[in-house]
Every structure is written in C-alpha cells, then in structure tokens.
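Section 3.1: Structural characterization of target chains.
Under the original work plan, the team committed to producing a structural model for every single-chain target entering the pipeline before any wet-lab resources were allocated. The record below documents one such target. The sequence was received from the expression subgroup and is listed exactly as submitted; it comprises 948 residues.
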Amino acid sequence: MSLSRSEKYSYDFGFGLSASLFESQEIYVGDEKGAPIYKEINSPDLLRNEADIINDLFSIDWSFTKDKTGFLTHDLHPYPAKFIPQIPGHLISRLSLRGELIFDPFGGSGTTALEAVRLGRRAFSIDANAIGTLIGKVKTGNLDQVTATDIHAIQCSLASRLTDIQKEPSILCEEYARFIPEIANIDKWFPLTSRGELAFIKSKIAEMESEKAKNISQLALSRIILPVSFQDSETRYSSKPRVIPPGETIKRFIKALDEITQSIIRTQAVIRYGVCDFLTADARELKEEQCNSESIDLIVTSPPYANVTDYHLYHRFRLLWLGHDPRLLAKIEIGSHLRHQKEATGFENYLSEMKACMATMHRVLKSGRYAAMIIGDAIYDKVLYQGAESLRNIADGLGFETLCIIERPLHANKRAFISAARRATNEKILILRKPVKKLKIWFQAPPYKLWPYEEILRQRELEVILGSDSWGDKEPKQSSGIDPYNATNARKLVFTHKYGRNLGLPTWQSILENGFALQPATRKDPKYVTHGIHSYKGKFYPQLAKGLINLSGLKPGSNILDPFCGSGTTLLEGYLNGYNVCGCDMHPLAAKIARTKIGILEVSPDIIRETLGIVINRIERAPSVFGNERDQFSKECIDEIERWFSHNIINKLNWILRLIRGTSDGIIREFLEILLSSIIRDISHQDPNDLRIRKRKIQNDDADVLSMYMDVLDTQYDRIERFWSVRGYAPNRFLRFNVSAGDSREWQVFKSIGADESTTDLILTSPPYATALPYIDTDRLSLLVLFGMDSSSRRPLEQKLVGSREITTGEKKHLEKFIEKDELNLPQSLRTFLSDLNLKVNKADVGFRRRNMPALLMRFFSDMKAIMENCYRALRPRGQAMIVIGDNRMKLNGDDERIATTDFIQDIASECGLNLLERIDVSVTTENLVHIKNAIKQNVVLRMQKPI
C-alpha cells in the first residue's frame, strides 16, 4: 500500500489506540506494569573473569517468589511450561553487552527474545512449534500505519457481520468450508456455531495486506480456539460439550484482537527499536545459512524437560486451525511424554537428541562466550535423573567449559497440569562457556577514500580499541590474533566498516552511515542521523570527532564536554556512542541546533510522527493566498525582516511559524523551527554563497516556501527514521545530554550544564579560529526571524563572542595599552608576538581590520586562557583535552604574517596545568564559499592531559 505524504507520518488508528501513544516513553527500563530493572555490564572486560561472573550469578535470588511475571507482552498468549522473564533478564544483563545477538534454540513463546530487545540486545529465536514462533513475533513487534489500518478494517468488518450472524451455522460452514481444517471427530471438538465463525474469521485474515496484521490476527484467533471448542480446559485434553451461541466466537476474536493490539501499543515504547528474527526450525538441524558459525554472543534457553510436556497436544487445535500439522511436531518434539510412551524410549534417548542441539549451540557461539540452560530433573518410571548434570557431561564432550550449576527452587503451583509422578520440585541453571582462543580477524576500511591522516588515525584506533599493534599492510587488514573479548570492541571503530572472519560484521559507524545497504555509499556522509539538520560554518566533521574519542580510550559511560559546542558535532557523536555529553555555545542558534540534534532522538517516534503528520496535513491544505499578518515576529524586527525578505515570503514565513507554534512544543517545536531556519537564507535576499552582508544581484521576490520546507522535513525525518530502524544495533545505552546557550568563560556555565569540578573525562572541542568567521552575522537572518534579535541586539553578542572581529575604538585602545606595557597575563611567547605584531601594524600602511588585529588577538587569547582554566578545573585527574585548532595568517607589507594560534593555545594550556601528550596533524576540507581563499586548510589536534 502506498501512503500519501501526510499518511506517512500520521498514525490515525481510528479505534481508540492513539491516546496510549502518549504514555510514558522511558526506554529499556521498568514501566508501570512492573518490568524489572537489572544490573547491566557495559564492558567486554567484565565477561572475562569467570570468578566474578559466578559470584554475581550466585548473589541473585533466583526464586523470584514475589516478582510480577506478566509485564509487557509476556502474558499475551497461553504457553505451557514457559520460564519466567526474570531468569533470561538477569542472564542477558550479566552475560552480554548492548547490541549483541542473543540466541534461544528452544524459543517457545519468545520470553528470551522479548527480554533481549527490552534490554537493548538483538534476538534470534527458533522453535519447532509454529505457535511459539507466532507468539514471539507478535509479542516483540509493533504497529505501523498499514498494520493498524488492516486491524481496524477486520474489526469493523466482523463487527458489522454480528447483526446477521443468526443465519443457520451450517450455511456459514458451507460458505467457508475451505477454511475449516481436517480434524478427526470434529463434531466432538467444535460445534457448528464456532466452526463456521472461525472459518469466516480465517477468510478475513487471508485478505489482509500487512504481514504484521496477519500475525496479530492469527494470534488473536489462536487465543480463542480452545475457549470456543469443547476441549475441557487449556490443560485437559478431553471433550466437554457446551452451548456456544452464534456470534460468541466473533465477539471473542474482536476482544482478543483489541487486547493484543492494546498490549503491543503499551509495550512498543519499551521495545520499539528491537531487532528480532524468529524461525520455525529444529535446533538439531540448524543450517549454516540460517545461523552462521560463531555469530552468537549469548545463548539463553530452557530446553523441553524430559518426559514432561506435550506441546503438540497442548496446541493441537491451534496448529490445525492455523494451517499446521501437529503430527509433524509430535514426531520431532524433544522430551514429549506421549512420544516416550509410544516409542518406549528413555532418558538416554532424550540426552542423545539434546546432544545434537548442543552441538549446534557450540557451532554458532563465539569464542569465550556463554550459554545458559535452564533445565529440570527428569522422572522415568519413578526413577529420578539429574538433567543439568547430565547435560554438563554432554557439554564437556562437545568442548564447552562448565562455569557452574545454580539450583533454583520451583513454585509449588508451577506446571500443575503435569502429574506428580513426572513432576520435579526444582530446576537448575547450567552455565557453560565456549573456550577462549585468539582470533584472526579481517578489518575492512570504509567504501570511500580516506585522507592520509585518516589512514593514520585508523591504524591508531585499531591499536587502542583492540589492544593489538600487529596488522598486515594490505587492505583489508588482518590481525595476527586478538583476544575475543577485545574483538567485541571492533564495533566501535569509525574508520573500519566491516570486520570478522569473512568481513560479515558491520561496525556501528557503518550501520549509522549506510544501514545495511547492499551498495554502501562511495562518498563519505557527514550528515548521517541528525548531523545534517542545519548547515553551520566552521564545524569539523563527525567521523573525526568519533575517531578522536576512540583515540582517547574512554570507558563506556564517561563524561564528554564541549565548551564550544557549535552545532553539536562532538555532542551527538558522544551521545550516539554511549557517553554522557554536555556543551555550551554563546551563539543561541548553534546551541538550539545542538540541543535539537540529540533531543529529537529522545522523543517517541509515535509523537514525532503524529505531530509531523498534523503539520504536513495542514501545509497540504494551506490557503492559496496568505494573509499579511506579522504576529509571529518581534515588532522590533519587522522593518529589518522586510529589508531582507519579500512581502510574499514574509507572509508564508509568518503562516508556517504560527502553524509550528500552534501544533508543537518543546523539542519538537525546536526541531520544526530549526528546519525552517535551514532554508532561511535560500528564500531571502541574502546571497547564500557569501558569508558577508551582501544581497543577491537579483532579488528573491517569491519562492515555494511550503514545498521547500516539506522537502527538508522529509529529508531529516527519513534520516531519523533510518536511525530508529538500526538503533537496536547500538553497542551502548544512550545517556544524558545537556546543551545550553552560555559563555564558557564563566565557571557557572560549566556547572549549569553538569561539568562541575573534576567530573569531566574528555574535553573535545574546536574553538573559534581567531577572527576567522563572523558566526553571528552568518546566521543573522535566523536570529532575526526565530529569536527576535534585531541588529541592535545582535551587535553586543557579536562583539562578545570569543574570536569576534568586532571591536570598539575605545576597547581597542585599552587593550593596546596592555600590549605596549607588556602587562598581559599570558605566556611569554604570546606576549612577545603581540608586542612585535603591534609595532609592525603601527608602522605599516594597512586598513582598519588589520590595524585591529593585535587588540583582537590579545582579547581572543585572554578569553581562551579563561576558558582553559575552566577546562582544567572541570577535568578529572588524568582526564584528557583534545582541541582542534588551526593557525591564522594576515597580510602585512605584502608578506604573510603567521599567527601561530596552535602553539599559543598549547602554551596557554600548559600554563593552566595541562600536559601535552601529542600534536596530531589533520587536514580539513572547505566549502564552496566566495571567500574560499581565506579558509584554513590545516588543523592540529592538541591532545593534553590533566596530571594526577
């Protein structure tokens, strides 16, 4: 089904579902239904020490006597002998990392899978029972527009049929006979009333377009099959006839469908980014193409207990009505009591079949990783067999190592439908590990060409992240042997996009840039996720920011500060890669862009989609003629706005601003305003290729502002939606962020954003280049329209900016006196330079801008010293500061005069107490601007450290 532009965004469910979209959107934590919060690990090093793991696991009270077990969608459908979610929850939290792949070879109803995605992992679940596969798919899924529409349609269709359902049941059975399965003695198990209505429901499900909607509807059908049959109960396979009146089956289905849908909606805020694969398969015969060898990070499973349950019998009628043959399941069901009786097998046969399953587990599990099996003892002919101990012996023979066996008491009321002669009183958790061995892994560069300095950074991050300095010279590079726990860190690499034995594993950076495209982009994309939400002059690109973070060797969850955050490149990269980030900038538009880049990723996709749907819908129905209102602009700014925009465009801008502010609030409003800001220059009289205040040669009398706005909205929404689709692969949690418009010369600003004394692990920033860019003037139109800042209110801000070129005559003379008297609180090297430059300028025949340079530079470096003092104060002992900076040049008497900004900042930092670790030379690219000749093409990263 193709969707219109407004339908793309809107979720108009139409049957009372939209309201629940606005419930609590807290992700991966407990909710109001009692989802537990577990202690998680965040480093592969914590997977290494088996003694610590054993201690942690034995410290848990595995009885969970008072814990709720039906939270989220865990109670979506009846399923026999399933284990409670707290068991896989604790195991997944302690034995795996975020973004990793969790495998359950006996997936059942998807308990492990749901807990895995709730905890930010990915899941692969298989089961021989197709009913289990269906339950798992639905309970870990969510609703989209097409799914919701299909579900609403079938509910309406069935509800309307209730009025004429009184016709003879036999007629309904004849009309839909092809949808009735072949069931022996069907009259014994299903009356005509429910039989015909079940067939009618099946016919409607077959017409549905959405695969998700079909799964949800089939699960609702499965839920009501036994209640509308003559089967005595869920756990008693005997016929007990009763009266099932016409319409009851349809009513039950509609109710079940609504309950399932509502449960999914309540749950999807918690698991919406989950990545799950379900497969109906036999674990003994799992093929390489279905699951690659050494691709699984953790196995958590509860195999069928020997001689206990008969899943094929429990789900017999469900399987038949959903188009499956329970006899096929009966033939392969491991541990089946009926199969044991029929084939006269014993515990040894059960162990033989489990050995084949465990061989598969050993094949797919990565080196050094764990398998947890929840298993009970078995009773055959009144003889007790120890399940966990027996499987441990098999595991030893297959090459596993046994860490421990944990005994877990069973509740007295569990598995009550099993006869006492076959029921054990406890179960055990068997923890296995695949032996640790060094790995030879290939590493492939991105599909685009790297700059020479990026090649160097790539080599260095391989060494820092993976703890090895032995690499081949050719591409792709190959390691001589890496510890498997260190190999897990390969996901963090930025200048490597694929790794693994067969280069089959993408890094997180590759996923962010390319998703899983078969043909990755051959050009570097600096605009992935929300990096491209708004242009900003002078920013450094995100791959470099992440590469430098990697080079610093930061631990997960560390704190990153950017005191010149600009449009938020460092902050967004820190956020995307699992760090707490904070930043400030005096430029109010910059701070707003930076805050929006991250903040919009924290908002529920449903709320974003709903709001954008409203905005798009109203834009599509916009009037053909716009009024002359100016109510969305500051009165002080209207004259200036009319000088820079045509009458027609001002009318449209006012209309869009009223729409944005009337339909949104908070970060979504900021997002919508930032998108409008991104097209401001293009629809104004300003020459968009000129940084200076110059108008176009031909004025922009009108433009299709609404279409341009919807285009940028589409572009940025698509990038955010792509991020939502891959978020489940993130190797980290997304932690706190704090962005503010503020002056980093003031210590109170550092404190206000959370960078208090000795709390910061890394400062990564690119300060304004001394007198290089007119930041405020560049964005004056956005400040004018969105912030109500006219020229009189912009001027003081421009003058106050660090690195500003604006200076009054009085301030210039005041600063020059300090230079002449050598009364500067700056390093000697800088004082000498400023004094010499001041003498040269006074003797030279130069214009006012060059004559201002000594005073401007003195002010810039004095400001930088105040900021570096604050940075030193904020850093922890051994915390690092990385400053991306470049030198300036000016013409004096026909010669280039070098302003050694890099050296001077290094000297200032040293005076503040920071030790230089290294200088990293990096080159930059430049944009197609009129003043390209003035652009700085060489940068240096000053890497420094606060001593202990």
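The first strand starts at residue 101 and ends at 104.
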